[in-house]
Amino acid sequence: MMNEPLLGGREEQQPLSLPSYLLIYLYVGHFLARWGARMWEFSVGLYMINVWPDSLLLAAVYGVVEAASTAIFGPFIGQWVDKLSYIQVLRLWLFSQNLSFMVAGGGVLAILVYTDLMTSNFTAFVSLVILINISGAVGVLSTLAGTILVEREWVVVISEGQPPDVLTKMNSIIRRIDLICKLFAPVVSGFIISFVSLTASALTMALWNVFSVFLQYWLLISVYKGIPALKEISERRISRSLVREVDEVDFEQPESSRRGTIIDKFSNTPYISAWKVYIQQEVALPGLALALLYFTVLSFGSLMTATLEWEGIPTYIIGIARGISATVGIAATFLYPELQSHISTLRTGLWSIWSQWACLLLCVASVFINNKILAAYMLMSGVAASRLGLWMFDLSVIQQMQDHVVEMDRCVVGGVQNSLQSILDLMTYVMGIIISNPQDFWKLIMISFVLVTLAAALYSLHIYRVRKHLIHFEKLFALVEWSIKS
Description:
Blueprint: H1 20-51, H2 57-83, H3 86-113, H4 117-120, H5 122-159, H6 165-195, H7 198-226, H8 228-251, H9 262-267, H10 270-279, H11 284-292, H12 302-310, H13 315-359, H14 361-366, H15 372-404, H16 410-434, H17 441-467, H18 473-485
């Protein structure tokens, strides 16, 4: 990264203050975009389980399509964001995300209105399901582009040249906004579904995406125009992209000297090149540990939501439980900066992931409870409590990537990281298809817990490789000795 401040003038002694109203615009624009995505994320599982009761199949198939699209196209999204200007990315992101979720909501609305469509016109039913899956996948890919733009690019650029705690604070606020949406969007959707109808929920979601896109664009374009550093970096990225293209043309050799093996050609494809860049990063192992946490049903995702619905837990209760889970996650965004400032980013990640693991023991215990309702509440409680460690670990890994990945690789690494997370998320839905009977959900719980254990072990290995130890036992013993003497 550049050592000079990117905002305003070139004086290195005094970091310039950021315009507070522009930061508010950034946060509000991010909130509006995340709200629509979170509404869809919560509701889609409920739509699918109501369309085909007593089976997780449709919910799992949607999850597979969504996760596979990100797994396959994630690296390309990162490279695409890296090559285009910030303005181009912003426009394509907002237009495609809101249009896709609007179309998906319209497809759901059609299936819910024509309740006998599955039996009366199966071809039309399948066509609508395919439309919903494709539109949802495009919406998620668009959301990924926006995530890379705001969380991996703009936040880093805006905080450049500012005091060190500015980046930590902005990361925490961005994550807090996402979790606030995760809290209230399900609660609102759950109450609409429970006390009005599923149809009203789908209509509300479609209308939200129609009317919010214009405000989102105005807010974020104001941020871009108001912070000169964003325009500077955007122009520099375009220049770098043009130089790459010229270099590639100049590098072309005659046909006789360009013959290579199939393996050489394959290894130089953009997809493989992106993965090679990722693997070479110092933070690849923490990234893998974070990605493993996506191979889980121990979250309020569509599979767990559909299972809880099947077990007889009211929809509004599920929405409230998910809201409580998000509240715990929001608490993590307040605790993380304090913990990080005292014990470093690396060790915050270590304590966070093992605290998540400890909380999930309650979910494992729920498997052995015969009372289905009690077991369901234990499951929800364990998942909600584990969010404190999960989101602090997420913030820790993201900040490590921001600190240790050079500017020219940030978007590519961000795209591959999301692709890797989606590959593991995809495996969750594949397991959901294989184990589609809600009565066997306990098997998915146990598999998920094993993967969290593996993630914690891998991150611990990374810590040991970097610091040559895991815990300062001498400090721990000194603290115990001091407590005894006191």
